[in-house]
Amino acid sequence: MAADASYPAEATAVLAVDSLRMTYPTKTVLADISFEVRPAEIVCLVGPSGIGKTTLLRCLGGLQIATTGSVRTHGSALGGTPRHMSVVFQDYSRSLLPWMRVGANVALPLRAAGVGRSERTRRAEQVLGEVGLEGTSDMYPWQLSGGMQQRVAIARALVDNPRVLLMDEPFASVDAQTRFELEDLTLRIRAETGVAAVLVTHDIDEAVYLGDRVLVLSGAPATIARSVDVDLGQPRDQLSTRAGHRFGELRSEVLREIRRY
Ligand SMILES: Nc1ncnc2c1ncn2[C@@H]1O[C@H](COP(=O)(O)OP(=O)(O)OP(=O)(O)O)[C@@H](O)[C@H]1O
């Protein structure tokens, strides 16, 4: 796995969550959540529906403020979503702006950061190429397939060279074949850029296939019931990795933990 050479040597975690607790007016959803994410690591979050996965991801991204506890990135406390962090949501049709062309959609974070037009255009073209969408800059998102639109959303998340990607069920709205392609795209991007990712998924096989670690949330309020190290090595392959004995063991381990509650 490619570690990021530009990452400060003294820092060991791109994200450090300590004793996080989240209480909504009606109930406490998360309690005492602590974990770290290292540079270039993919951590998958799984757990039953309604357990608090999205809530946790929103707290990690500074989109929601935890009731108590802390989220630190590069050693500093979060105050909103930092520039080196990007979020990819499940619903690409709502996250892309339909009145803007693909290139402009991808370049949005750079525009917000005050990057000039020619550099924005250059970088958007480059990152569209990296996700396999060269030549689509002048199209509108609605002229592309669902899988292509999610690639545009991933390109936009990558355009400003993030150190952490937060992904909330990013492949749940595409067909099975496209899902495999986007999973492999995520692994390739991580290998090439050293970006770390926290990915929420309902699909246990996907969590094991993509993750270096799978965190299982359970209970009410939810805690991390189990952290499973995925010792499958890299690179992974949709056919041979998933058919392997160890893959089956890891999948069973995660499933057992989810079913326990
Ligand atoms: N803004 C809010 N105000 C009050 N309760 C909320 C709010 N957002 C989420 N909740 C509640 O918090 C709990 C966790 O929701 P969350 O969406 O984080 O779960 P999840 O594990 O991501 O669910 P799913 O897997 O179905 O997407 C749910 O009971 C939900 O109703």
Structural overview:
It is globular, with a radius of gyration of 18 Å. 36% of the residues lie in helices and 23% in strands. The N terminus is likely disordered. The two termini are 34 Å apart. The strands form 2 sheets. It has a 6-stranded mixed beta sheet, sandwiched between helices. A 4-stranded antiparallel beta sheet has the order 2-1-4-5, covered by helices on one side. It has 2 domains: 146 residues, 3-Layer(aba) Sandwich (Rossmann fold), CATH 3.40.50; 65 residues. Strand 9 and strand 10 form a beta hairpin. The chain has 9 helices and 10 strands. With 261 residues, it is α/β, with parallel strands linked by helices. Bound molecules: adenosine-5'-triphosphate.
Secondary structure blueprint with pairings:
Elements: E1 15-23, E2 28-37, E3 42-46, H1 53-60, E4 68-73, E5 76-77, E6 85-88, H2 92-95, H3 102-112, H4 117-130, H5 146-158, E7 164-168, H6 176-193, E8 196-200, H7 204-210, E9 213-218, E10 223-229, H8 240-243, H9 245-259
Helix pairs in contact: 3-4, 3-5, 4-5, 7-9
Bound molecules: adenosine-5'-triphosphate.
In short:
The protein has 261 residues and is an alpha/beta fold. It contains nine helices and ten strands.
* CATH homology superfamily name of the largest domain: P-loop containing nucleotide triphosphate hydrolases
**Multimeric organization:** single chain
- Low-confidence stretches at least 5 residues in length (pLDDT < 50)? 1-10
| Count of distinct strands | 10
Side by side, the strands of the main sheet go 6-7-8-3-9-10
Helix content: 25-40%
Total number of distinct structural domains: 2
Mean of residue pLDDT values: 92
Structural class: alpha/beta
Number of helices: 9
Q: SSE order, as H and E?
A: EEEHEEEHHHHEHEHEEHH
Q: Can you identify the CATH class of the largest domain?
A: Alpha Beta
CATH topology call of the largest domain = Rossmann fold
**Main sheet attributes: strand count, strand direction, barrel closure:** 6 strands, mixed
Shape: globular
**Percentage of residues in strands:** 15-25%
Provide the list of bound ligands, each named once.
Answer: adenosine-5'-triphosphate
Keywords: ATP-binding, Nucleotide-binding, Transport
Pfam families: ABC_tran (PF00005)
InterPro entries: AAA+_ATPase (IPR003593), ABC_transporter-like_ATP-bd (IPR003439), ABC_transporter-like_CS (IPR017871), ABC_transporter_ATP-bind (IPR050166), P-loop_NTPase (IPR027417)
Protein name: ABC transporter
